[in-house]
């Protein structure tokens, strides 16, 4: 099981949308995915139409050392399991910080799942702040996927997260953390600035940058309020197509298949 954190300390950049829909699209390729909702706001949980966990079982695994396998739930989608969020998770920030070993805690909690052979990927949706849960996710992850919004402040956020990765590696919490990919979200081809940002990120980050651009679409914004992934809500729309392409690219990058050079930017 590879652990992939979807992180960016900036909020509203498409972390949850990407975690949930990438996970859903991967399962359609026969990949077994465990989605872990680490955000106390529980957007990934509710975005799949699920209530927050009652007993706070991820919280108890983290803080009380209960078996994390008890926290795994199935979803409507075959091959997709979830560890739901619970608002108690917000308390982890203080409790884990006091316990002193917070960097390693999440990795330890995920270890039995990694060894269980039940999942190919764990996808961690992280909160938008550089607290214990996000740094714990970066310490636990094999790979980091950073969604950024195609706008000026997106670039600023990107340089911050690159620094965070450097710090996580250098402090010894996770020397092998790989910045696997940057995914550009909420792309609007009519906006000149969006095209400028895409070009800049591609020039600077080269292969780290996914070729697939996630468009800004009304449906992607609506789907969570219906408790559905985009492949359930509008399976043939632009949003679903984009996340399916992202899932394919995600798998192709791991199979050693050559990555195509970026084509021209799409227009409406
Ligand atoms: P984060 O998890 O980084 O805070 P979200 O994934 O929750 O970001 O996205 C922020 C908001 O933007 C949400 O309301 C979401 O539904 C919406 N959104 C995300 N991606 C898109 C998109 N590609 N097109 C339109 N709306 C989007
Ligand atoms: Mg989120």
TrEMBL record:
It holds the Pfam family AAA_31. CDD domains: ParAB_family. This is ParA family protein. InterPro entries: AAA_dom, DNA_Partitioning_ATPase, P-loop_NTPase. Residues 1-177 form the AAA domain. It comes from Prosthecobacter fluviatilis. It comes from the Bacteria. Gene3D superfamilies: P-loop containing nucleotide triphosphate hydrolases (3.40.50.300).
């Amino acid at each position: 099981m590879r652990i992939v954190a979807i992180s960016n300390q900036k909020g509203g950049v498409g972390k949850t949308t990407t975690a949930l829909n990438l996970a859903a699209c991967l399962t359609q390729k026969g990949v077994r995915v465990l989605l872990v909702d680490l955000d106390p706001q529980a957007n990934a949980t509710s975005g799949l139409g699920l209530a927050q966990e009652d007993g706070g079982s991820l919280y108890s695994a983290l803080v009380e050392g209960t078996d994390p396998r008890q926290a795994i739930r199935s979803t409507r989608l075959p091959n997709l399991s979830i560890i739901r969020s619970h608002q108690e998770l917000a308390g982890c920030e203080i409790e884990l910080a006091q316990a002193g070993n917070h960097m390693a805690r999440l990795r330890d909690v995920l270890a039995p799942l990694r060894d269980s052979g039940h999942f190919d990927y764990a996808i961690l949706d992280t909160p938008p702040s550089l607290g214990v849960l996000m740094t714990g996710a970066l310490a636990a992850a094999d790979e980091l996927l950073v969604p950024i919004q195609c706008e000026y402040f997106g670039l600023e956020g990107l340089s911050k997260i690159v620094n965070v990765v450097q710090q996580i590696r250098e402090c010894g919490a996770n020397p092998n953390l790989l910045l696997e990919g940057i995914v550009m979200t909420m792309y609007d081809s009519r906006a000149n600035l969006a095209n400028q940002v895409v070009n800049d990120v591609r020039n600077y980050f080269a292969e780290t940058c996914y070729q697939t651009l996630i468009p800004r679409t009304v449906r992607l914004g609506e789907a969570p309020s219906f408790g559905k992934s985009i492949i359930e809500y509008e399976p043939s729309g632009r949003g679903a197509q984009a996340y399916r392409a992202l899932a394919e690219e995600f798998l192709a990058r791991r199979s050693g298949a050559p990555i195509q050079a970026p084509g021209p930017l799409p227009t409406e």
